[in-house]
Amino acid sequence: MERGHDIVLFGATGYTGALTAEYLATSAPRGLRWALAGRDRDRLEAVRAELAEIDPDRPVPELLLADAEDPGSLRALAASTRVVVTTVGPYGAYGEPLVAACAAEGTDYVDLCGEPAFVDLVYARHHATAVRTGARLVHACGFDSVPHDLGVLFTVERLPEGVPLSVEGFVRARGGVSGGTLRSAVGAFADTSGMRRAARERRLVEPPLRGRRVRVDHRVRPRTRLARGWAVPLPTLDPRVVVRSAAALERYGPDFSYGHYAAFRRLGGALGAVGGAAGVVAAAQVPALRSRLRNLVPAGAGPTEEQLANGWFTVHFTGAGGGRRVHTLVSGGEPGYGATSGMLAESALCLWEDDLPPTSGQVTTAVAMGGALIRRLPRAGVDFEVLRAVRD
To answer: Which of 34, 41, 93, 49 is nearest to 68 (CA)?
Structure first.
């Protein structure tokens, strides 16, 4: 069915949404038919005016009015385009109606979600519809979880086929935080019982994996030569995404494991991070403290221009199997917003423009886009390298 737009960006007036709109305005093909969507026309007009000043020769995006709490407007938005990009979170609070609309309309969907409960609920409630309509629902298209998901795929493809494989990833990063990200994180920390319920709901409908085994490796790795420091397990959405890619793709072998770690140069940094994370999780259980945490960064605020310019991330991977060992690196700029806005935009462009394997339903970036997205990401300053490959 012919649609009026190729890509619609929902949430363009927020911090990350504005960065994503700027990336599309400067880097997308000139023939892209795209639009900005939100509930406040005046704020959308202001964003569009800023984009027009960047390159007056480029066509400006159209504007669409839609509200996260108005399912009818979201259904019309989804029906108008081939791909929807959304930065409107927390996704657990505001995201499901838009996913439902995209699944029903057969519209591809990408987001920045790092909330495990939301991802599981979307699978349980909308995966089957998306499979039927042909929609691809791709979560975690930013720093959560593109470098990790595609970094593991990049590593696995340099190891032998048909043998047990193991990969470990070691993350180091420097960046800032926005009000929206803070609210999403605090909400996830506060609702551990909701995460368990969502996981159970998913297990009831997700077919079990037969004939192969994939798992997250939870063993402690206190020292790492790869990142030259200390490592602590990182229980984010990222390892879950990686093992779901492994379950879907036989290239990961008959028996696959992945360990995911935060790396620190000094022991004090590792211990401080563990203590700080435990403190935040504990505080999120107390309503008064939870409210204070959410308000540490105002809604719509984010890192300064200096923080964006000076931020960076590295993820070192080591993979082994079949008598071969490989060391790879994924690296980029400020992770949470600078690099993330580029990764999100390139994910949408990849779904719109590239020749990809046929998939539908809730799928990961490795399954939906794989090598095509890896080849795109250097445009967003995200690079993939093989540092060392040896035989055991």
So the answer is: 93
**Letter for the amino acid at 373?**
L
Which candidate, 125, 119, 92, places its Cα nearest to that of 243?
119
From CA 37, how far away is CA 12, in angstroms rounded? Answer: 7
- For 32, the token pair is 């892209």
Tell me, what amino acid is at 174?
Answer: R
Comparing CA positions, the residue from 356, 303, 358 lying closest to residue 333 is 303
The token pair that represents 76 in the structure block:
């019309």
Question: Alpha-carbon distance 12 to 313, whole Å?
Answer: 25
pLDDT in tens, 152-206: 999 999 999 999 999 999 999 988 765 566 556 666 665 677 888 999 999 999 9
What span, in angstroms and rounded, lies between the C-alpha atoms of 241 and 142? 12
Cβ atoms of 121 and 351 within 8 Å: the answer is no
Could you give the CA distance from residue 65 to residue 377 in angstroms, rounded to a whole number?
A: 30
Instruction: Return the axis-axis angle of helices 179-190 and 15-27, rounded to nearest 10°.
Output: 130
Which tokens is 331 given?
A: 């690296």
How far lies 125's CA from each of 130, 131, 253, 320, 367, in Å? 10, 12, 29, 37, 20
